[in-house]
């Protein structure tokens, strides 16, 4: 709603905190539309990657962008880093509001909603993953404290591309938590099979005393043996 109290909130924030508010809006719009690597962002903005280093680092320092690297990579030196919008509200705004701004200005809210609703479940599932990762260090899991959780992407031990939603090392370096997040009604047994398969193919597993599997799901339909299950209520409880 163009009369809504938060309709212009990002612009107000940028005017308060940044001199280059137009460039910040352009950068976040490009990331919101799916560009995550520096080279992709630079191509969409039509500037060189070196020209964008300072404004992007500024957005990271202010908390608008997050640079992610796969588990096991050095955050500063990794060439696999990707960017995402940190805050869920800002992510929604630049993913859905900005691309439809002209129609929203005409009051065509229902038409815009019909256009975006098929993508909302994917958006929510990604934010669900972010919440799950944030919750990992908050409290112990099976009596073990874990450090910051990461995603992992790369080639598995068979040389094939693989992704894991959550990987976290215990504070004493003896244990590794590996988790899958799903915001869907996928059968629990299928999730259990997938997490076990990924553990068997993950390159870092041999470095740890024990691997702890976990699934983070929308609804728990049954109890699974030898696996920790988290629901939204569990995650919100951990984040309080």
Summary, kept brief:
By secondary structure, this protein is an alpha/beta fold. The protein has nine helices and seven strands; from the N terminus they run ααααββαααβββαββα. A hairpin with a 5-residue loop joins β3 (about 150-155) and β4.
Question: What does this 3D model show about the protein?
Answer:
This protein has 240 residues and is an alpha/beta fold. It is 44% helix and 18% strand. It is built from nine helices and seven strands. The chain has a five-stranded mixed β-sheet with strand order 3-4-5-6-7, sandwiched between helices. Strand 5 (175-182), helix 8 and strand 6 form a beta-alpha-beta unit. Helix 2 packs across helix 5 (88-97) and helix 7 packs across helix 9. The longest helix has 27 residues, at 109-135. The radius of gyration is 20 Å and the shape is globular. The mean pLDDT is 90.
Number of strands: 7
Largest sheet: 5 strands, mixed
**How would you name the oligomeric state of the polypeptide chains in this document?**
single chain
How far apart the termini lie comes to 31 Å
User: What does the overall shape look like?
Assistant: globular
Strand content: 15-25%
Element order, helices and strands? HHHHEEHHHEEEHEEH
Alpha-beta content class: alpha/beta
Mean pLDDT: 90
Question: In angstroms, what is the radius of gyration?
Answer: 20 Å
Number of helices: 9
Low-pLDDT sequence parts: none
Question: Percentage of helical residues?
Answer: 40-55%
Strand order, largest beta sheet: 3-4-5-6-7
């Amino acid at each position: 709603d163009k009369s809504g109290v938060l309709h212009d909130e990002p612009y107000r924030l940028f005017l308060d905190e940044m001199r280059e508010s137009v460039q910040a809006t352009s950068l976040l719009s490009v990331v919101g539309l799916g560009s995550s690597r520096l080279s992709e962002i630079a191509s969409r903005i039509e500037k060189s990657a070196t020209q964008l280093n300072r404004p992007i680092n500024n957005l990271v320092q202010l908390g608008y962008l997050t640079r992610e690297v796969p588990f096991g990579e050095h955050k500063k030196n990794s060439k696999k880093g990707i960017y995402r919008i940190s805050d869920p509200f800002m992510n929604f705004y630049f993913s859905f509001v900005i691309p439809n701004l002209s129609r929203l200005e005409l009051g065509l809210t229902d038409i815009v909603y019909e256009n975006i609703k098929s993508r909302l479940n994917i958006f929510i599932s990604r934010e669900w993953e972010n919440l799950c990762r944030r919750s990992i260090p908050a409290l112990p899991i099976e009596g073990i404290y874990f450090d910051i959780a990461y995603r992992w992407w790369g080639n598995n031990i068979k040389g094939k591309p693989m992704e894991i939603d959550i990987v976290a090392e215990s504070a004493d370096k003896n244990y590794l938590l590996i988790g899958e997040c799903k915001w869907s009604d996928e059968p629990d047994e299928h999730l259990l099979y997938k997490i076990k398969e990924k553990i068997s193919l993950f390159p870092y597993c041999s470095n740890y005393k024990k691997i702890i599997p976990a699934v983070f799901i929308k609804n728990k339909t049954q109890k699974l043996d030898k696996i920790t299950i988290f629901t939204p209520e569990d995650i919100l409880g951990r984040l309080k």
